[in-house]
Amino acid sequence: MKRNIVIALATLAFFACQQLIKKEASKSTAAILLEQLNAAKGRGTLFGHQDDLAYGIGWKYIEGESDTKRTAGDYPALFGWELGGLELGREVNLDSVPFQKMRKFAIWVHQNGGVNTFSWHPFSAVNETNSSWVTDEVVVKHILPGGSHHEVFKGHLNKVAEFFASLKTENGAPIPFIFRPWHEMDGGWFWWGSQLCTPTELQQLFKFTIEYLHDKGVTNFLTAYSPDRNFTTEEEYLTWYPGDDIVDVIGVDNYWDLRQPDGLESAIKKLEIVVNYAEKTGKIAAFTETGLDGITQEDWYTGRLGAALNASETTRKIVYAMVWRNHNLSHFYVPHPEHPAADNFRAFVAQEHIWLLEEWKSFKEGL
Ligand code: BMA
Fold first, then answer.
1. Is residue 225 part of a domain?
2. At 205, which CATH number?
3. Count: domains in the chain
4. Nearest-angstrom CA–CA distance, 291 and 300
5. 64, 113, 215, 362: least buried by Cβ within 10 Å?
6. Statement: residue 6 has pLDDT above 80
């Protein structure tokens, strides 16, 4: 009798184990990425840079190059890429990065342990000559289901879906990434911004975008919500929020507060609102875009960004912080090695809680 019970229990344990193994095996790499980022919460913040591998100050498309690496000795842990122009079938994005190269960079990033995030500044589906920054014409209402340009917009999304579907390793495994559409909607500078659509319309657009990609079979990604700095309460922060079922990364873009002489407190408060909401909903929080163009304040990295990220136990739960691109000497966010802010940048990334690629990789190995 006893023996039978032991055999029955062992059999049960065996099947439970099999189920667990199966479940682990079927877990998407995006789900794994989410777990890893979640584990980083409170331990470290991944440093991110837009277009880091594509070009920098004085160079373009040199294999292995990176301004972050040139100045600080290692690549960023997170890499931002921009899709604007893809929706029109162009071969290069609005900052002249060929999508063929972007695909290769993104795959390299994944294979080398980094994280990819994509922004999208699409042209208007109502008038395809109008960039994201043309704000003299209503667009969102017309591209929603039932709108006059909904079909054109679906064509734009098809292009995005095709590109995302092509992000695969040699074995055909889809690589995970973070998608961050319709950002800074609380500002007035994009056609999906607060001057030209209502919160409900934006939420519908956001939801439609994500669900459409899912329906097209593009599912291996996390979705980030990132309004700009125009909020002082959680309720205001959530004005444009499309829902907990749509969003994985609770983000904020904020350049403004960190360039005001007395803006640090505001920036910290906003990061805390973001983290508190992420904590409440079991999601992760991120400083999705920031930076000081030209880094005109030498100690901006430790005195501003570092100070904000390290302000409290709450802000230390920000899992990544990304600065914008290094276009040229009049538009850049990571200092080149001889720049007056270079030492300070090195001091910033040397802080224990700020992670470049190698630190992120060794953290993951310890999980
Ligand atoms: C802006 C600037 C532009 C660029 C756009 C999209 O912040 O960097 O030069 O075209 O982002 O990447």
1. yes
2. 3.20.20.80
3. 1
4. 9
5. 64
6. no
